[in-house]
Amino acid sequence: MSRSPNENPYWHEFKKPLAFDCDAIEAMCLEALEITLATRGVEAFWNDDLQDFGEGPAWSHPLLVKRHQDAAEERLSRILLTIAASYRALDDQLREEQGFQTFKAKQLAAHGGFLTIYEGEEIPETLRECCNKIIHTDDFRPVYDNGSQPRDEGIWSMTGEIELEGTMRRKPWQVAFDLFSMLETVDFLQTT
Questions:
Q1: Residue 64 lies in a domain
Q2: Secondary structure (DSSP) of the chain
Q3: Range of the domain at 49
Q4: What does pTM read for this prediction?
Q5: What is the pLDDT along the chain (192 residues), one digit of tens a residue?
Q6: Does 7 fall in a domain?
Q7: What one-character-per-residue DSSP string does 107-146 give?
Q8: What is the C-alpha separation between 131 and 125, in angstroms, rounded?
Q9: CA 119 – CA 122 distance, rounded (Å)
C-alpha cells in the first residue's frame, strides 16, 4: 500500500538501512577477477621471437595491449574502493546479527587472515580491516611477476597480491592482501 502524499516518509516506523546491491557487488567481484587475470592473457600478444629477428613489432595488437595496461590498475582500484565501502556499510549494518558474525569467523579461519602486515601496530587481519586499508590507502600497488624471467624479459602480470600504504594518526602502515581471497569471500557473502 502506498503512503498518502501528505504523509512525511521521514517518520516511517521501521529502520531504513542503506541499500546493498548484491548483483552489482557480484559483478564487480567478477570484473576485478577478470582484470587481474587479463594481465596474464596479454602474453598471447607478445611476439618475442619476431622481435629477436627484427621482423616486426613486439606486440601483435599494440594499441589494445597499451589500452589494457594503461587502464587495468585504475579500474581495479576503483572497483575495490566501491566493494570495500559497500562491505564496510554491510558490516556495520549486520554487526549485531549472529549469523553474520559466524560467517566472518569462518571466513577469517579459512583464509588465515586477510592481511599481511609489513608495518603498523595493532592491525587486525580481518576483511573489515582489509576494506579499511583499501579505503584509506595513499599508495595502491598491485604486485607483478614475470615468471621468474630476468627483469628485462618475460611478460609482467598481476599476481593477485595488492600492497597498500598509508598513515593512521601520523603513523605509517604497510599491508598486503590476497585479492582472490577477498573477492571470493565478498562474492560468497552475496550468495548466503
A1: yes
A2: -PPPTTS-GGG-SS--PPP--HHHHHHHHHHHHHHHHHHHHGGGGB-HHHHHTT-S-SBSSHHHHHHHHHHHHHHHHHHHHHHHHHHHHHHHHTTT-HHHHHHHHHHHHHHT-S-EEEE-SS---SHHHHHHHHHH-SEEEEEEE-TT--TTSS--EEEEEEEEEEEETTEEEEEEEEHHHHHHHHHHHHH-
A3: 20-191
A4: 0.83
A5: 577 888 888 887 777 777 888 889 999 999 999 999 998 888 788 776 665 566 666 778 888 888 988 999 999 999 999 999 998 988 888 888 888 888 888 877 877 788 888 888 888 888 899 999 999 999 999 999 987 776 666 678 899 999 999 998 899 999 999 999 999 888 776 665
A6: no
A7: HHHHHT-S-EEEE-SS---SHHHHHHHHHH-SEEEEEEE-
A8: 11
A9: 10
